[in-house]
Design brief:
It is a single chain. The chain has 68 residues and is an alpha+beta fold. It contains two helices and four strands; from the N terminus they run ββαββα. It has helices at 16-19, 55-63, and strands spanning 2-4, 11-13, 28-32, 35-39. A two-stranded antiparallel ribbon has the order 1-2. Strands 3-4 form a two-stranded antiparallel sheet. The radius of gyration is 12 Å and the shape is elongated.
Length: 68
């Protein structure tokens, strides 16, 4: 199964059956406004969500840069 980060487009092949975890370690679904987005370990770190998401993440998600 392939996962892709909504912000930076990083892709990873991952088989949940092997590790019994639904998503790769560090990857998370985040609620941003009315959307739920999948973010990688780098883009979805708790540092980026301290209070509000970071300006970098906000730009990546709103401009469509690197989004597929």
């Amino acid at each position: 199964m392939q996962f892709q980060c909504k912000a930076c487009s990083t892709k990873i092949e991952y088989d949940p059956a092997i590790t019994l975890e639904a998503m790769p370690k560090g990857w998370r679904m985040h609620q941003i406004g009315t959307s739920r987005v999948l973010l990688c370990k780098s883009c979805g770190s708790q540092i980026d969500f301290n209070g509000e998401h970071s300006p970098y993440l906000k730009q990546m998600l709103t401009t469509g840069k690197n989004n597929t």
